[in-house]
Amino acid sequence: MKNGWYTFYYMKEKSVHHIPAKNFAKDFRRQLPLQSMVLPGIVFMIIFSYIPIYGLTIAFKNYTVVDTFSSAQWVGLHNFEIVVKDRYFWQSIVNTLGISFLKLIIGFPAPIIFAIMIYELSEGTFKRAIQTISYLPHFLSWIVLGGMLIKWLSTTGFINQALLRLGFIDKPVNYLLNGKAYWWIAALSDVWKEAGWGTVLYLATMAGIDPTYYEAAKIDGAGRMRQIFSITLPLMRNIISLNFILTVSGLLHSNLDQAMVLMNSQNQAQSEVIDSYVYRMGLTQGDFSYATAVGLGVSIVSVIILYAANKITNRINEESVF
Amino acid sequence: MTKKIKENKTFSYINYSLIILFTLAIIIPLLNIVSSSFAGSKALAEENFIFFPSEWSLDNYRAVLNDTSMWSAFCVSVLKTVLGVITHVFFCSMVAYGLSKRYLLGRKVYTILGIITLFFSGGMIPTYLLMKDLHLLNNFWVYIIPQLFSYYDVIILMNFFRQLPDSLEEAAIIDGAGAWRILLTIIMPLSKPALATIALFNGVFQWNDFMTAKLYITTKRTLYPLQMKLYEIIVQQQAATMNNIGNFVVQTTSKGIQLATIVVTTVPILVIYPLLQKHFVSGMMLGSVKE
């Protein structure tokens, strides 16, 4: 009996369909060792994923500290009505979109260009060194990077020093205390951290390009630029448009770690993003239902954007995420 | 023909110089932090250097290493990373092995349940309330238990397990090995590349994660990991600079401590970085062969 499930194993896929339903209990018992491996995972998902999903219902309830998810009073769309009228909510939406938009226009093409530049290097130590260095920032935590940014951007930091010496500014500015600069700081620091890492996927795709295309192009007299625009980029179209759909659908995703470490009372009007607002309303002020409503509303809009982005790119070319 | 060669040469020159420029834009700021962390307090106060402070000193590191709370935070970080990685890899492999068998009863339901979790989540607040109900607030296990499982990693492992030849398993079956035995003595040792990739990425996540502590460790500060400790130092320092609290000496000292902590926090990542590099490209490939 101990090895009973192996007999079952040899039946393999096809024969499973022939087993009458009444044998389910018996077959299940034979597979017990396997089921005992999978079921803990299922229990885990039910507790740590599905219970919080059920917990989203508190967005339509008035949840207080003494309540459970199900015992709270239903209030319908009341929370959402307040969210829509909340000035600070709209401020966090504007900031999130502003930062995401800057990230999209700088951070989306950057890894593509960088990957092509690396691809054009000849194989060797230099190429590997460049890759090693450019991937490194991805593995720094946002707290570490935040601490570094605070130093770089302070009045005595190297950015101010460089600008002073080059004569671009007369006196040093603490850029993090200047709300106007915050969107750029948030977007550019994100690009600095992730652009190198973003090349991994593109480089892997380019490694799959058949070298005979380039040989043929060379014989036809195409220069390096011509090869990039006529061979490399067209062959990467699919992966680029896939990444574009994912980036666009993430426009409302905010970087909580970054906001937590770079935010201060001087730049809060520009640095408060959706997630940090949810954190502040829910965990600092204890308004759980309201914060959940903000989070849920934003997720629903995100899904709609993903769907729309997918539809539009679908029209443009055949590739789609789904 | 000579024109073409010339064009290609110019292309190479421009390409190489731009790449070197980009790389310097990564290296220079990082070196600036490292050299500043070794600067004496006087040099830090004047701060008129990028790489070479007028005065070198180990005082910042001495201050950090003499702080017992820093050591306890370091221990929490190490413990949460090591324990978190081991349990995560084991738990995910176990589930993935079961799910990799196509004849597993209920496999369709399990897969659907798993895929839904990739696209939907309860978000910050419901998850926080769940942790509270599970008594995981201010509890070391909040670093480990919620991180045990990731369906994404299960998919990667499942695909890897399926590529292994069936004959190995069949031989073990004939020798009378059970499912658990096969997983532990045949499948897992053969899947080292996949397991290493998942372990390294999970390890980097565990080491760098500060949000878990920020959200769930509300009162018991002895459970703070290094990242959270650094966050606290940064926030205090920011507030002090903005409100001009404390005298100049105190400010520069805490600035030095902050820089030294940044470096200390990052060293473990740098140590495993060569290992990581070997594995992450294969890891990306594993991730891209999703079902």
Helix content of chain A: over 70%
**What are the low-pLDDT stretches of chain A, counting only 5+ consecutive residues below 50?**
1-18
Number of strands of chain A: 2
What is the terminal-to-terminal distance of chain B? 48 Å
| CATH topology label of chain B | MetI-like fold
Number of helices of chain A: 17
Q: Give Rg of chain B in angstroms.
A: 25 Å
What is the number of E strands of chain B? 0
Largest interface: A-B, 97 and 99 residues
CATH class annotation of chain B: Mainly Alpha
CATH domain class name of chain A: Mainly Alpha
Q: Ranges of chain B with pLDDT <50 over ≥5 residues?
A: none
Order of helices and strands of chain A: HHHEEHHHHHHHHHHHHHH
Number of domains of chain B: 1
Q: What's the mean pLDDT score of chain A?
A: 87
Strand order of the largest sheet of chain A: 1-2
At CATH's second level, what is the architecture of chain A?
Orthogonal Bundle
Major sheet of chain B? none
Supply the number of helical segments of chain B.
13
Describe the structure.
The complex is a heterodimer of chains A (322) and B (291). Chain A is mainly α and 322 residues long. Chain A is built from 17 helices and 2 strands. Chain A is globular and about 75 Å long. Chain B is an all-alpha fold and 291 residues long. Chain B has one domain: MetI-like fold (Orthogonal Bundle). Helices cover 76% and strands 0% of the residues of chain B. The longest helix of chain B is centred in the last third of the chain and has 41 residues. Chain B is globular. Chains A and B meet through helix 1, helix 2, helix 3, helix 6 and helix 7 of A and helix 1, helix 4, helix 5, helix 6 and helix 9 of B.
